[in-house]
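Let us practice reading a record.
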Amino acid sequence: MKTSLSQMTLDDLSRDATLAAEKSYSPYSGFRVGAALLLDTGKIVVGTNVENVSYGLTICAERAALVRAVSEFGPGIRIAAVAVANLNGAASPPCGACRQVLAEFAGPETAIVFPAASGKTTMRFDEVLPFGFDMKLKQRADKA
């Protein structure tokens, strides 16, 4: 994938995600995930998954990082890149819920780095979530 970010920047972001995964609270699944967001200001914000015995109340690392970013820097943040890592050696792209939540703050060209079955993969956000819900689509449907 072509991105304006250097490979070194993406590798550093992946390392930050791996360090965040080490702090995971995942006593039920043992699936330890970390995420690192590079904001357009150059700030990096990390998060990790936090499980709950009910599973449905578990929060993924990507959303944990995003909530932290908004809490620290406000709702005007924009995401330049996202890195996801896990300590389990498994494929771990952002889940559908995380993709949709990230869509509020990421542009189509935002780089997403994650472990895939074929190894570390980098994709554009519009490739990871090609048909995300947005109000423009809803408004067009309402007019039809």
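A brief commentary: Residues 7-21 form the longest helix (15 residues).
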